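Me: I keep going back and forth on a fold encoding question. No explanation is needed for now; the record alone will do.

Assistant:
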Amino acid sequence: MRILIKRDRLKDALASVIGVVDRKQTMPILGHVLLEESDKLLKFTATNLEVQISSITKVIEMDPFENIAVSGRKFYEIIRSLDSKEVELKSTKGMLVIKTNNSSYKISTLPGNDFPLFDASDTSETFKIKQEKLLSLFNKTHFSMAQQDVRFYLNGLLLETEPNKIKAIATDGHRLAASETSIEKKQINKTASIVPRKAILELIRLLDKKEEVRSEIGLNSIRFMFNDLSFITKLIDGKFPDYNRVIPTNTEINIQLNSHALKPSLQRVSILANEKFKGIRLETTGNSLDLSSVNPEQEEANETIPLQEKVKKIVVGFNVSYLIDA
């Protein structure tokens, strides 16, 4: 095996897949990245058995070779720290040799046949969406996903499709975030897929607002294809709560606020909030909204935000962290 490749291309391809390389290494092979030849392109694949990411990149020269798996973190850190424009990769006697004009590294490899690949072959629905719209959808909802909750179906984000529309919903049992956006596909069946938390966070990291995303929804997995990437994740098998029951259809009081003014005020008031409960008080008085917090040391914080119109008096308490996240 001999591959000559630009260092920047190699670094970018590895950076795309490194997020799912298993740090804990419950299986040694999960700490590795698979190298394959694919139609005269170099293909990298990493997985944690739940999410699988593949990235392809162009090379300057490449000889045919058998698949190998190399330690993902070591490989990435070496390539990232190099200052050479081109890198040569050679495989010999169970080792990968990384060479530049003035440096050489050897790292051990494993047979590529041992790498645990899975494929999304049960596609039932497909749609395309701009990366910017999908990223916005995730950013508006992902913070409400549960983390290591015994109700496993909450440890992810619900994606629902229907004609010309896609929705994202997340809840941890204390708060709920829902958002929707349009897609240009009228002939699509209604689907509901719970995408794992790790997959959503990786997608947020990888989406960059350039090309369109092609999505393929299956019974047990969902695939996103964009920017020379193939992103496959298994779905959470469970029933998501009926979120429509907790979203009020009619509201008595509606207040419009500038988020650029509200968020800094919340952050300042939160400094003196109770460290355990993070509770703050919101009170409307005429044409203003008063924010206040107090802690066991009897320290206080108060801020006033002007409102565009007079509203009915209300007094309510919230966990300030939830408001800042939203």
Remarks:
- The chain has three domains: 2-114, 123-245, 259-325.
- The longest helix spans residues 259-270.
